[in-house]
Amino acid sequence: MSNTQSKKSPLYVTLLSDFGTEDGYVGAMKGVLLKGLPDLQVLDVSHSIKAFGIKQAAFSLMNYAFYFPPGTVHMVVVDPGVGTRREGLVVQSSEYFFIGPNNGVFSYIYQSTKYQAYRIREKQFGKKVSPTFHGRDIFAPAAVRLLKGDVVSDFCDPFQKLVSFYESYEDLGDDEYRLKVIHVDHFGNLILNFTMKDWESLGSPQDVRIQINHSFLVGIMKTFGDVPVDQLLMTWDSRGFLQIAQNCGNAAQSLSKKEGDHIQLKIFHLSHPKRTDI
Amino acid sequence: MSNTQSKKSPLYVTLLSDFGTEDGYVGAMKGVLLKGLPDLQVLDVSHSIKAFGIKQAAFSLMNYAFYFPPGTVHMVVVDPGVGTRREGLVVQSSEYFFIGPNNGVFSYIYQSTKYQAYRIREKQFGKKVSPTFHGRDIFAPAAVRLLKGDVVSDFCDPFQKLVSFYESYEDLGDDEYRLKVIHVDHFGNLILNFTMKDWESLGSPQDVRIQINHSFLVGIMKTFGDVPVDQLLMTWDSRGFLQIAQNCGNAAQSLSKKEGDHIQLKIFHLSHPKRTDI
Amino acid sequence: MSNTQSKKSPLYVTLLSDFGTEDGYVGAMKGVLLKGLPDLQVLDVSHSIKAFGIKQAAFSLMNYAFYFPPGTVHMVVVDPGVGTRREGLVVQSSEYFFIGPNNGVFSYIYQSTKYQAYRIREKQFGKKVSPTFHGRDIFAPAAVRLLKGDVVSDFCDPFQKLVSFYESYEDLGDDEYRLKVIHVDHFGNLILNFTMKDWESLGSPQDVRIQINHSFLVGIMKTFGDVPVDQLLMTWDSRGFLQIAQNCGNAAQSLSKKEGDHIQLKIFHLSHPKRTDI
Questions:
Q1: Which of B40, B147, B245, C76 could form a disulfide with C100 if both were Cys (CB 3.0 to 4.6 A apart)?
Q2: Rounded to a whole number, what is the distance in Å from the CA of A41 to chain C's nearest CA?
C-alpha cells in the first residue's frame, strides 16, 4: 500500500479450543496475537470444547468458519497430541486460513471447500517452544506471520497426509438407512450424518420415519415449535443436517443418545403402496 | 459525513444467548456481524444463559444494557419459539437498539426507559433463513442494517403486543409483604422484586426482617463482609434490588431456594412500639 | 501528541473474574470501559474462576499477563471482601498496570517483576459506588483513568502492606522434597511449586521420582504423548512449573488430588550409587 493514510482492512483471528478459560492459557494466546498485531481483532468462538474433543471441534468449526470475512484466520487448538510427531497444519482455502493440529479437526473443511494444506516447520519457531503449548508458541505466531503478509512457504511445506474422519450414512437397502449421531449440541439436539442434499438425492420424500425405541418420529418439521412442548421431532439444523430435537427439551438426555450412536431411518415413498408398519 | 478522513465512532453489538459457545452458533453470528460491518466491535455478554431461560436473560440484560455507549445494539437470542409465529422485535430507546424475540426478554427494558417497539418483517431477510436460527439469519443482519444507518421502518412495522412478565411484590397488609425471587445469580444470591425505591416509598425503615425457616434476617447490610463468613444477610444488589446473600457462600444452595420462590418480608417501623417476635 | 492525525496505539484491558457471565455483571464492566474509552479493546480472559478462587486467579494471571502488549491494563475481580476494608490496588510494573483487590490475586506478579503498589482512594469515585460491585464502579473507572493518561497519584496513594501467599517447596533433607499442588488446571493437570529453575539449581537431575500411592513416576517427560494414553507422567508446564499429568486423561480425578495437597519428590543423583526403592 503506497498511501500510509489509507484505511487498512481489519484483521481477524478466531479461536476454538478445549482449554477452558480459567487457567489463562487462552489469555496467553490472545496476548501473543495482539503483541504481534496490535490492531487485530481476536474473536472467541469457544473454549468449552470438551477435553480432547476433536470431533466436536471439527463440527463446530464448520458451523462458523464460512460466515467470517475473507482473510480471517481460524485457529483450532484441540490438540491431545501436542509436542509429539503429529503435524501442525496451515490449511488455505480461497478465503480463509485454518491453523491447527493434523488430527481431524479440519475434516469438514476438507469436504466443504477447495484447499491447500501445509505442514508448519516447527523448528523455525525457535528453541523456546513449550512442548505442551503449541497454541501459544507456534499456532498464534503462525497466525501473526500470515496476517503480516508472510507467504505460507516461508515457514511451511506442502503436506498431503491429512487426518480426516467423516463417515457417510449407510444404505441398508429396502429404503432403510443407518445414520450416525455426529454431534450433540448444547441443547441436546442429535445431529445426524444425513443432509438436505442427501434427502433431495433420494427424491425429497415426505414420509420419512425414524424408529425411537418402540415408536416413530414421522416427517421432517420446519422448526421446534411445530410440535407440542416436550415432544420429539425431526428437523433440519441450521447448516442442513437432519437432527432429532425435543421442543423446549433435551433430546440427547431424553433418549440417552450420544455422539457415535446409530439411528435407523426409513423412507416411505409417496408413490409406493403404503406398507404396514410393525 | 462529508469528510471521509473524519474519525468514525466505533460501533458495538452486544450478544446474550443460551447457545453455549461449543457448537459454533455464536461464532456464526459473529461472522455475519463482521462480514456486514468490518469495523464493528462484537462484545460477548454471555452465552451461558440456561437453555430457554427467558427470565434469566431479561434480568441480565437490565444489568448491563444502560452502561454501554449510546448507539450500541443489544442482541438477545434466547428464543425457544424460533421459527414459529412469535415476532422478532426491534426495540428502540433514546440511546440503544434492542433486537430479539417477543417472549419477555425485554421485560425490564420496558420498565426502565421510554421506547418504541417494532416487529421485524422476516420475509425481507430472504428465502435462506433457517427456521431454527434467526439469530444468525435475521437478528444479526438486522443489527447490521441499523448500524449501517437504515431506518427501522425499512424492515420493521410498529408493534404493540409486547410480551412482558414483571410482577410487583404483594402487600399483605399489617406491614407484611410477599416478595418473589426474580433471579438467582452466579454466586447464589437471591434477588427479590423489591427495590431501594420501594423501600424508600415505605419510609426507608431500618427494621426490616425476613423469615427464613425458623429464624430471621434482620436489617439491610451494606455489603457481604458486614457479617461473618458463611452467615446469611440482606443487602442491596448492584442495581438496587434487595437480595439475600451468604458471605463467601451460596444462599440459593443453603436455603434451597430458586427463581420463582416466595419470601415474606416484615417491616417494623421505628416509631412503632416494638413487637415481640415469635 | 501534537498531531491529531497520528495513529493512536490501541489500548487494551483484560478481564479476569469469578462472576460467570450469565448475570450481566461482566457486561456492565465492559459497558463502563467502552463508555470511558470508545476505542478500547476489552479482552476476556476468564469469568469462570471458581467463586472466591483467589489462588486460582493469581496463578491464571501469571500465565497470561506478560504476553500482552506493553501498556495493557490487567483487571482482576475476584473479590470476596468487596466493600469491606480490604484495599483496592493499582500495581504498576515497567510494562503493565494491574488493578484489583488486595487479597493475594497479585501474589505471582510480585514475584515475577519489579513493581510499585498503590491503594485506590475509593471516595474519589463518588457516592454512587455500589458496595458490592467495585469491579464496575471503581476498578473499571480506574482503568479508564489510567489509559486516558491520568497519573496514578491522582487517585491512589503508595501502599506497602500487600497480601501475598506464595509458598516455596520444603527441603526435607536426604534429597527429598515436599511439594504442594498450587493449581489444578482445566485438564486436571496438577501443577506443583517446583520450577525448572529450582530443578536446575539442584543440578538438573535426570532421576527424579514422585511417589503416588504405592508406585512411582520416574523422570520428567517432554510432553504428554511421551507415555501411553491414560498413563500418568511428570512434565514441565508451559510456564516452567513441574506438573503431574495424565495423557488424554485427568490426573486430578485419577489421583483424587486438589489444590493445596502435598506430594513427595525424591531425587536420585546419577553420580550417587543407586539406592534400593522400597
A1: C76
A2: 8
